[in-house]
Amino acid sequence: MAIKRNKIHQCVVAALATSAALLTGCATQSSNSTAQITNSYYGTLEPFAQENLYFVLTDRFVDGDPNNNYPEQGGDENYTFNRPLKGPDGKEANVGYLGGDLLGVYQHADYIKDLGFTSVWVTPIVENPDEAFTGGEKIHYGEMFKDGGKTGYHGYWGVNFFVEDEHLVSENFKFKDFTAGMKSKGLKTVLDIVANHGSPSYTMPQDQPMYGEIYDKDGKLIADHQNLHPTELNYDNPLHTFFYKKPDLAQLSDTNADNPAVLDYFVEAYLQWIDQGAEAFRIDTIRHMPHHFWKKFADRIREHHPNFFMFGESFVYEADFIAQHTLPENGKVSVLDFPGQAAITSVFGKPKEGSQLKATKIC
Ligand SMILES: [Ca+2]
Ligand SMILES: [Ca+2]
Ligand SMILES: [Ca+2]
Asked: What is the CA radius of gyration of the chain?
C-alpha cells in the first residue's frame, strides 16, 4: 500500500520472510520537506524501513548447541523438551522446546544474508518458565489459543526480562555476542519485546514455579499472581500491583500500565538489550496496552537512543485502526501491515490454508 505524497499519512515498507506480512511505517511529513522524494508514491521515510527483515522463531530454527536443550527440565510430567501433539494421517505438532538457539541463527547468518536479507528479527530472548504449563485448556493438534501443556519455547512468557532464557544462549555466546556476530556478518538484530504480559498466571491445579511471577535484574521477586484469578488480586499486596484485575489474553498475567513501576521495569530491561546490540524493536501485543504507556515508553527509549525504530503487532486488518500507533502523540511506532498481508494473500495465496498451497496455476 502506498499513499499519495500530499497526504499526511505515509505508509508502507519491507517484506518479511515466509509470512508475507509487511511492515508499515507511517510518519507525519509535510509535502515539501522531502527533497529526495521524486516519485508520486512512496513509503515511510524511516531509514530502518529499507531493511529486508527475516523473522526467526529461534527455538524452531537451528540447534547450534545441544548443551542448552535441557531434556530433563520440568521432570516426568511437565518436561519442557519435545512435547509432540499427534494429528491425523501421521501429522504432528510440538509445544515443547526443540533445541534452536542463537548460536544456530548465527551459524546460518550467511544463509540468511544470501537470501537477500539485511536484518534478523528474533523472538523474545528473556527467561521463560522451566516447566510446561498445567493450567488453562489442554492444547491438541490443530488448536489455537489454548495454553495447557505448552511451554515457553516461543519466548513470549517472560519471567525475568533482564535475563536470557537458558535454551537460547550458550556458555560463551550470550545475546551481546550474538548481535556482535550478526553485525560482523552485515546483519542487524531486531528484538521482539513484550510488555503487555508475563507468563500464564492462574488456573493451575497447583501453583507452579515461575508462572505468574516477575523478577528484577537482581533476581528479586517483584510481582506474583499467586495462581489467583485477576479479580481476586488485592492491591494491598505489593506483589499484585504489577497486574490488572481483569482478564485479558488467555490466562496471561496482564501488566498494569497505570503503575509507573511497570513502565520503569520495562524501560530499564529493554534499554539493557539495546546496550547489548538490539538495533530495533518489534513490539508484541501493542494494542493490548494503552497509548499513554507506549508514548512514555517510546519517549524514554529515544531519550537514550534518538529515532530508535520500533514497530508493533496490532493484529487487526483495518488500516485506520492499526495506524493509530504511528501518530506522534501515541509514540510514533510503526506497525506490521496486516491489511496489506490480507490483500497480498488474497491474490497470491490461499489464506489460512498454509504456505504449501500456492495460488492455482493461471496458465
Ligand atoms: Ca540448543
Ligand atoms: Ca527458562
Ligand atoms: Ca493488557
From this structure: 21
